[in-house]
Amino acid sequence: MYWHIETDRPLSQLRKIKEIVDRDEWDKVSSEDKKKIARELELWDSAKARYLYAPNMSLFKWFLQPHGIKGSSAGNRGGKTSGICIDVGMQIEGWHPLQEENLKRLADEALDEYVDMKGVVHNVSWVREWCQKLVLEKRWIPSPPIFARCVCPDFSTYAEKVIGPEYEKWATREMLKEIAYENQNKRIIKWKNGSFVEFMTFEQKVRVHGGAARHVIQVDEECPQDIWIENNMRRISLNGRMLYGATAIEGITWTEEKIFQEGEKGGDEIYVMEMSTYENPMNTDAVVKEILKQCMDKTDVDIRIYGKRKRRGGNVFKMAKDDKPWIIERFGIPRDKGLLLLAIDNHPQIEHALLWLWADYDGDFHELMGGLPNMYNVAEVFEHGSSQEVKYYIDMTEAKLGRKHDHVLCDPSAWNTDQTKTEERSLADQFADLGVYVQKGSKDRQANIIRVGDLLTLQHKDMPVSELARAKGNPDLVLKLYPDARPRLFTFSDLERLRFERRNWHYPVYKGAATSEHDKIKPKPVDKDDHMIENEGRQCAFVEDFNPDELIQMPSEDKRTYTNDKGEILDIKFDDDDDIYMDFDDAIMG
Questions:
Q1: Start-end of H helices in 426-515
Q2: Structural domains in the chain?
Q3: For the segment 219-258, what is each residue's pLDDT rounded down to a tens digit?
Q4: Which of 49, 239, 334, 340 gives a 20 to 30 Å CA spacing to 289?
Q5: How many Cβ atoms from other residues are within 10 Å of residue 409's Cβ?
Q6: What does pTM read for this prediction?
């Protein structure tokens, strides 16, 4: 709290001392003044965090977030561990800015300016208004005694050599009662006010992480998901907090979907941030250079220096981003133009994946490039269910789209049956019984990856053909040179499952193989979270091989759709006599 309300902070005094030393004028300071400075430094050192710690702006904002879960993705030596240890220590000692008494004081007294450890002045006039909002919502955190837990990879390295010493370093010494993080029987630090932080590791069994409730739990580096779940249960009854900090050295894992993607949506439950190595004022140029020397490739630099969360092994569709111009807002597709394809990836135990793609041969929404069609992913369903329920999903979705599909594509396995059982009918036969006549889609995954990659690659009418190869690997550069460049394959923004798969579908990490050997290994993406991706590949292959001259548009009652002046589809359905009989939301089209 001190960096929010106190102007005459010890750090400002230390800067003055540094200036004297830098000017080589220390000898001119009187012995009495030197003794005074020494006494002040000793007093400050007894409560290091309270007086000597000055957070960077990322942590400054972090400390003021009242969310139940807070996640930090940081570069090596980015300051995430010390920041979270201080967050817990502030709450334990009772001077956390979010504790009730302190929060109310900040709502009135917070400063308009903040000077960080580098001496940079920041405008923080927003703090008072923010704290006033939290006071009105009563979003303060508990005051001492605080029961805390630190969960880390192991005792011998993390607890004993990294995190335990960090708590001890920044704690107010006169408040400490017992320091036993190296004690194999206790693994705990206790304060005189009844607070404590206990140390546990990923190596311990999940059931050991159960037990009594905790006000705040620190998770240092990524833990197994079952350990996270068990610890998260410990904080619920006390309305406590989970503080997670890690360098994503394993790339993107379960934390991406469960913590960071949810946090990036905003909301009151999860807060996330990224923090680079450069933000830690304690890091010298030599430290940063040493980390850079250990990085194997650009992905490693992004992870270890900039705190990014990147796929190890490389994203399959690295030429595209989950943003404009690839992701666009929904519009009403024409009822009698282009080609509407449905692809089904059917599974007996997990969710069925249904994807609708519309191919535009007229350039109604984006100008055609080279006369080739533009393609749009316009609808999806990702649900469990029987074949009959799949038929229901198709009818309902196409009622909302305002037209029926022209073709249905399935994986060739849909025609497989057990040849020893003559009574068995294939999945394709079962769909035919329901009036869904499927065709065999492409099984050539590698060819489909290339097709989709070409369609996602940014193009522009002024771009030389020779630049297309470079465009696949550097979309940022293309958009910088050609701001209105675009792909030929677009996705509506509300297709969350397809967007999730495209973000996360990746090539595996080649453990044990030298980087120079990677090109000799057959590129094969991981066989996980790729159901919509497979559908998309089959559809794009179909469109690429399709002759639009064979497409005969036959307007029918099933294809009629009505829109308002904003292009939004109206929920209207007509029978054969042009009488309205039901809303689209309730319609089942046969």
A1: 427-433, 445-456, 468-473, 475-481, 496-504
A2: 54-304 (3.40.50.300), 327-561 (3.30.420.280)
A3: 999 899 999 999 999 999 999 999 999 988 777 788 988 9
A4: 49
A5: 23
A6: 0.57
